[in-house]
Amino acid sequence: MEPSVLSLLGKQFIRGISTSVCACGKRNFKKFPIFNKRGTRDFKARQAKNPHPDVPIHTYGVRPIGYKAGTSFVKINELVPEIIVPDLTGFKLKPYVSYRVNDIVQPPLTPEELFGAVYVKKITEDFKLGKLGPDNQPLHPSPEESLSPEEAKEKVASIRSDIV
């Protein structure tokens, strides 16, 4: 293809198509990071012996278990992850929960529900049998009556889960 020539005030402008790269062979490799799995065998060998500071060693999200001191690696035992797996022999539940399971919506526990679930039965029995003291306090408190508020709440939660 012949370039077109334009002449203006004694200057000549030539317009043509170039098939060479305008960077004259230089490439910007900062846009193309070369991680551990990329590159030639020679590149990987050089990176293993003397890593280049501009080329990061990609860890794929794995946390280090030590640090590098000079040319040697110092392992810290506290940084090594310890996987604790419980023994599930005889476990009744299956490891999968279907998405078709209906949602269980429980309203928050009210004080009236807590009182009714834990104390009402014993108080009515004591009243009918005349086992209340002068201040309407039980003469022989049951284990339910001696519960702390937190223990009573846990007991009602377990009763609710048995019903559902």
Blueprint (SSEs and pairs):
Blueprint: E1 4-8, E2 11-15, H1 41-49, E3 66-69, E4 72-75, H2 111-118, H3 120-129, H4 149-163
Antiparallel strand pairs: 1-2, 3-4
Walk me through this protein's architecture.
With 164 residues, the protein is of the alpha+beta class. Among the domains are: 51 residues, no CATH class; 53 residues, no CATH class. The protein is built from four helices and four strands; from the N terminus they run ββαββααα. Strand 3 and strand 4 form a beta hairpin. The mean pLDDT is 77. It is found in: Mitochondrion. It comes from Daphnia sinensis. GO terms for molecular function: structural constituent of ribosome.
Short description:
Helices cover 26% and strands 11% of the residues.
What structural keywords apply?
EOG090X0IZW, two-stranded antiparallel sheet, 164 residues, Ribosomal_mL41, 4 strands, structural constituent of ribosome, 4 helices, alpha+beta, mitochondrion, transit peptide
> How widely separated are the two ends?
84 Å
Shape: elongated
Strand sequence of the main sheet, in spatial order? 1-2
| Beta-strand percentage range | 5-15%
Q: Which structural class fits the helix and strand makeup?
A: alpha+beta
Question: What assembly state would you assign to the polypeptide chains in this entry?
Answer: single chain
Compute the CA-based radius of gyration: 39 Å
Number of strands: 4
Largest sheet: 2 strands, antiparallel
Catalogue the unreliable spans.
none
Helix content: 25-40%
H/I helix tally: 4
Q: N-to-C SSE series?
A: EEHEEHHH
Indicate the mean pLDDT: 77
Biased composition (Basic and acidic residues): 150-164
Protein name: EOG090X0IZW
Keywords: Mitochondrion, Ribonucleoprotein, Ribosomal protein, Transit peptide
Organism: Daphnia sinensis
